[in-house]
Amino acid sequence: MGLTNFHRLFIKDYSRVAEPLFRILRNNEFRWGEEEEQSFENLKKALTETSVLGIPSTSDPFILDTYASDVSHGAELIQLQAGAE
Protein backbone atom coordinates (compact mmCIF):
# COMPACT_ATOMS: atom_id res chain seq x y z
CA MET A 1 0.00 0.00 0.00
CA GLY A 2 3.00 2.27 0.42
CA LEU A 3 3.40 3.17 -3.26
CA THR A 4 -0.29 3.88 -3.70
CA ASN A 5 -0.35 5.97 -0.52
CA PHE A 6 2.63 7.99 -1.80
CA HIS A 7 0.61 8.91 -4.90
CA ARG A 8 -2.76 9.35 -3.16
CA LEU A 9 -2.94 13.03 -4.13
CA PHE A 10 -3.10 12.02 -7.80
CA ILE A 11 -5.71 9.26 -7.37
CA LYS A 12 -9.30 10.48 -7.34
CA ASP A 13 -11.23 9.22 -4.28
CA TYR A 14 -8.16 7.35 -3.06
CA SER A 15 -9.48 6.58 0.42
CA ARG A 16 -12.73 5.15 -0.97
CA VAL A 17 -10.98 3.11 -3.67
CA ALA A 18 -8.33 1.71 -1.30
CA GLU A 19 -10.60 1.04 1.69
CA PRO A 20 -11.11 -2.70 1.00
CA LEU A 21 -7.33 -3.21 1.01
CA PHE A 22 -6.77 -1.13 4.14
CA ARG A 23 -9.50 -3.18 5.81
CA ILE A 24 -7.39 -6.32 5.25
CA LEU A 25 -4.46 -4.65 7.00
CA ARG A 26 -6.59 -3.70 10.02
CA ASN A 27 -8.13 -7.14 10.54
CA ASN A 28 -6.42 -10.25 11.83
CA GLU A 29 -8.16 -12.35 9.20
CA PHE A 30 -6.93 -12.12 5.61
CA ARG A 31 -9.80 -12.44 3.16
CA TRP A 32 -9.32 -11.68 -0.55
CA GLY A 33 -12.59 -11.50 -2.40
CA GLU A 34 -14.15 -9.72 -5.35
CA GLU A 35 -14.24 -6.34 -3.58
CA GLU A 36 -10.53 -6.50 -2.70
CA GLU A 37 -9.62 -7.63 -6.22
CA GLN A 38 -11.58 -4.74 -7.74
CA SER A 39 -9.88 -2.27 -5.39
CA PHE A 40 -6.46 -3.66 -6.36
CA GLU A 41 -7.23 -3.43 -10.09
CA ASN A 42 -8.58 0.13 -9.74
CA LEU A 43 -5.43 1.25 -7.93
CA LYS A 44 -3.18 -0.37 -10.55
CA LYS A 45 -5.11 1.42 -13.29
CA ALA A 46 -4.96 4.76 -11.46
CA LEU A 47 -1.18 4.49 -11.05
CA THR A 48 -0.69 4.11 -14.80
CA GLU A 49 -2.88 7.01 -15.93
CA THR A 50 -1.52 10.30 -17.23
CA SER A 51 -2.39 12.18 -14.03
CA VAL A 52 0.35 10.13 -12.30
CA LEU A 53 2.72 9.47 -15.20
CA GLY A 54 4.30 12.08 -17.43
CA ILE A 55 6.56 12.21 -20.46
CA PRO A 56 10.11 12.93 -19.27
CA SER A 57 12.02 15.95 -20.53
CA THR A 58 15.69 15.22 -21.17
CA SER A 59 16.55 18.90 -20.67
CA ASP A 60 15.24 19.00 -17.07
CA PRO A 61 16.85 17.31 -14.04
CA PHE A 62 15.55 14.07 -12.56
CA ILE A 63 15.19 13.03 -8.92
CA LEU A 64 15.95 9.41 -8.06
CA ASP A 65 13.89 8.51 -4.99
CA THR A 66 15.00 5.25 -3.37
CA TYR A 67 13.70 3.14 -0.53
CA ALA A 68 15.23 0.15 1.24
CA SER A 69 14.39 -1.85 4.32
CA ASP A 70 15.06 -5.33 5.66
CA VAL A 71 12.14 -6.72 3.65
CA SER A 72 11.97 -4.70 0.43
CA HIS A 73 13.51 -2.03 -1.74
CA GLY A 74 12.37 0.22 -4.54
CA ALA A 75 13.12 3.26 -6.62
CA GLU A 76 11.18 5.90 -8.48
CA LEU A 77 12.34 8.39 -11.09
CA ILE A 78 10.70 11.78 -10.52
CA GLN A 79 10.83 14.98 -12.52
CA LEU A 80 9.31 18.37 -11.80
CA GLN A 81 6.83 19.34 -14.50
CA ALA A 82 4.93 22.62 -14.30
CA GLY A 83 6.42 23.09 -10.83
CA ALA A 84 5.04 19.84 -9.39
CA GLU A 85 6.33 16.29 -9.01
UniProtKB/TrEMBL annotation:
From which domain of life does this come? Answer: Eukaryota
One Pfam family, short name please? RT_RNaseH_2
Q: Which residues form the Reverse transcriptase/retrotransposon-derived protein RNase H-like domain?
A: 32-82
This protein is called Pol polyprotein
Q: Which organism is it from?
A: Plakobranchus ocellatus
